[in-house]
Design goal:
alpha+beta, 7-stranded mixed sheet, elongated
């Protein structure tokens, strides 16, 4: 029997690494059958169809086989920080230092409810027409206050110089219009008036240190060149919704990244930018837009970006845990670059040369066994040449405890030459040993002919082994690249981490907080189906955006239409005279405070 697990509604398993919604599960013959999940409906616990986690429990754990939850944290009022990271150019990837340099633009958008108005200074444009007295004319004939050219006072419009006024912006519209409350010289506030964008030359930005900003850190950042502070811009604000802020910052940054080089030089890599919030989930959470991933340009000829994978996922949110084992939980985002090495350089300049050196080593079979010194001299020369290429490879890549594919090829070439030397030495020793027991020249000639025949057969076998093995490598060379699923498993990339219980074959989402402690801590996770938590009784899976059913991110994203409605609400398109009248009627009795 097969048990189907529906992720849409129903039961939650409290002891699991990450709770999974399930409609039902059954037992057959007193044992839990293998769980078949429906990943297209998979959602981390607590999210549902929301783009943020609205509530979680801190200090949770398992004690005496039962789950204990700590304090509940309400995140329903958290500020949603809409994040966009657009990679522009991958400048270089350093194998030896395990670093990469990337140029990218990071944008953040958020709605601050406290930014409903702000104290500022406005420089009125010199072309604005204001009422006043006609300035005294130097010549009575130049006066235009009366029909007779006199200089008597008259009310008319004249061109004023630049004028800086203080006050409070109560509304800022998308086109730059302001609903402005001016403060006069006596410190009193005048009724609000509408300033069109053409009415003022400059508007002082809000004092940003007084308002919300999503503090963040790049965990693996080494160094960067760029704007130290970034640029903030108030898109709009009003008294009901607060203010909508746009933050832009350009980075030319170097990041640290541990490279997985087991397949070098036919390897794929995941380059990561790890972004973490410096505040709890209840303060703010990162949110992504539901857009296609972006592919950066790549400088140089060694790497290229896997377009299909990159468009499926450039940035993703690491889902938060509904039942969190520690005290403070932060929002985490990752930008990943899926790159593949162009192995032509190593194929043409290393592997082909090693192949040719070993072909030259096969020339040793043209030297008779009696001339064993000359033969071994040729083999030792080719052996030195092969090991020299190993030094070239070691200068390029970092020291790793495991062998790369290139290392294996070089070792195979060295072992092949050692085998040639062993074959030569064995035949030479046999010849010397047998010659001592032979007396006639005819017997010696027969021995020499037999040894030569064996040597020729061995040479043909060695040549066949070397040519066939290299032909196989050449044929399968482009098929030796790992699948992205294996790359994610090797890097333990937590895009969609799942645990599988070997005892009952159940699967569930892991807790993000316990990915690195699954082997050591039995107080943080447990199989939700059979309560198994013994070390070695589970298997870890790291699914990719290319795996069936995981093409959609686990954390829902904000659709573009909703974002545009937030960014550009219709009622904030431009200011109208009626807005000024309505505002003054509404707030006529409310004092305006600095």
């Amino acid at each position: 029997g097969t048990c189907h697990l529906s992720m849409g509604t129903g039961m939650r398993h409290g002891q699991c690494g990450q709770c999974v919604d399930a409609a039902s599960h059954s037992r057959a013959k007193d044992c839990l059958t293998k769980v078949q999940d429906e990943p297209k409906l998979l959602r981390p616990a607590g999210y549902g169809e929301e783009v943020i986690l609205k509530k979680y429990w801190r200090k949770c754990g398992i004690k005496d086989g039962k789950e204990e939850c700590g304090e509940a944290v309400d995140c329903s009022q958290t500020i949603q920080v809409i994040l966009e990271i657009n990679p522009h150019e991958l400048k270089k990837v350093e194998d030896q230092s395990e670093q990469f340099e990337l140029v990218f633009i990071m944008k953040m958008y958020w709605q601050d409810p406290k930014l409903h108005s702000f104290w500022t200074k406005v420089v009125l444009d010199k072309n604005q027409k204001v009422e006043g007295k006609v300035p005294p004319a130097a010549d009575a004939n130049q006066g235009d206050g009366g029909k007779d050219g006199s200089t008597k006072d008259a009310r008319q419009a004249f061109e004023a110089p630049l004028q800086e006024v203080e006050g409070v912006v109560r509304r800022k519209y998308l086109n730059g219009d302001l609903l402005f409350v001016e403060r006069d010289e006596d410190g009193r506030f005048k009724p609000a008036r509408l300033l069109k964008r053409e009415d003022y030359a400059h508007l002082k930005e809000p004092e940003w240190e007084h308002y919300f900003f999503p503090d963040y850190t790049f965990i693996n950042l080494v160094s960067f060149v760029g704007d130290e502070a970034g640029k903030k811009r108030l898109v709009w604000c009003n008294e009901d919704k607060g203010g909508f802020v746009e933050f832009t910052r350009r980075y030319d940054a170097t990041f640290q990244e541990t490279l997985e080089l087991r397949r070098f030089p036919i390897d794929k890599q995941i380059l990561q930018i790890k972004l973490t919030a410096e505040a709890d989930l209840k303060d703010f959470q990162f949110v992504l837009l539901d857009d296609k991933g972006k592919c950066p340009e790549v400088s140089g000829e060694e790497w290229f970006v896997q377009k299909d994978m990159q468009e499926k996922c450039t940035t993703y949110i690491r889902y938060a845990d509904e039942k969190y084992p520690y005290f403070v939980q932060r929002s985490l985002a990752k930008t990943v670059l899926h790159i593949q090495r162009k192995s032509d350089y190593y194929f043409h300049n290393v592997m082909i040369n090693i192949f040719l050196v070993n072909v030259i080593a096969l020339f040793a079979f043209s030297v008779p066994i009696p001339d064993v010194g000359d033969r071994l001299g040729l083999l030792s020369g080719t052996l030195v040449a092969v090991t020299a290429y190993q030094s070239v490879i070691n200068a390029v890549i970092p020291r790793k405890p495991h062998l790369t594919q290139c290392d294996k090829y070089v070792i195979f070439a060295v072992v092949f030459q050692v085998a040639l030397g062993c074959e030569t030495m064995v035949l030479a020793f046999v010849t010397q040993f047998r010659e001592k027991s032979l007396e006639t020249q005819e017997e010696l000639d027969e021995l020499a002919a037999l040894i030569a025949t064996i040597d020729h057969i061995a040479g043909a076998c060695f040549a066949s082994i070397w040519l066939i093995s290299n032909a196989t490598v050449l044929t399968l060379f482009n098929q030796m690249y790992e699948k992205w699923k294996a790359v994610y498993d090797n890097n333990k990339e937590p895009y969609a981490p799942m645990q599988e219980c070997i005892t009952c074959r159940g699967r569930w989402l892991c807790k993000q907080a316990t990915l690195k402690s699954l082997e050591n801590s039995k107080t943080l996770w447990r199989c939700p189906f059979c309560n198994e938590n013994r070390s070695g009784h589970f298997r870890q899976h790291y699914f990719t955006p290319g795996c069936k059913g995981f093409d959609k991110p686990l954390v829902p994203r904000l659709d573009r239409k909703t974002f545009e409605e937030m960014q550009r609400p219709k009622e904030m398109t431009q200011g109208e005279k009626s807005h000024e009248e309505e505002f003054n009627q509404r707030f006529s009795s409310e004092p305006v405070e600095e």
